[in-house]
Design brief:
Elements lengths: L17 E8 L2 E7 L1 H13 L7 E2 H25 L20
Antiparallel strand pairs: 1-2, 1-3
Length: 102
């Protein structure tokens, strides 16, 4: 079994136990591990600013990343073959809307 060493995203510490919410970077889901002291300091600073940062257990986040990336790999050929770009027109946008092809 391969052991992957993670470092804290904030301070570079060697023993992260928690993770920030998952983010998608370059088409893949990634985990942002953090250590206990950084978790405490981030939470404290967020509360001071009347904000909230959800934090999760590192093992659960690693499992979720593996599951999501496997799902993307399974669906990617179909997305590339059939998906089209969608143009979003926001409410109150003054630019002319694109006419539908007839």
């Amino acid at each position: 079994m391969e052991v992957i060493m993670h470092t804290c995203t904030v301070c570079g510490g060697e023993k992260p136990q928690f993770a920030l919410p998952l983010k998608k970077e370059k088409g893949e889901w990634v985990v942002k591990p953090i250590c206990g002291s950084c978790r405490y300091n981030l939470g404290k600073e967020a509360r001071a600013q009347k904000k909230f940062i959800p934090m999760y257990e590192l093992g659960a986040s690693l499992n979720e990343v593996a599951k999501r990336n496997a799902e993307i790999g399974r669906l990617k050929p179909f997305l590339e073959a059939f998906a089209r770009q969608v143009k979003v027109v926001r409410k109150g946008d003054k630019r002319p809307a694109v006419a539908k092809a007839s």
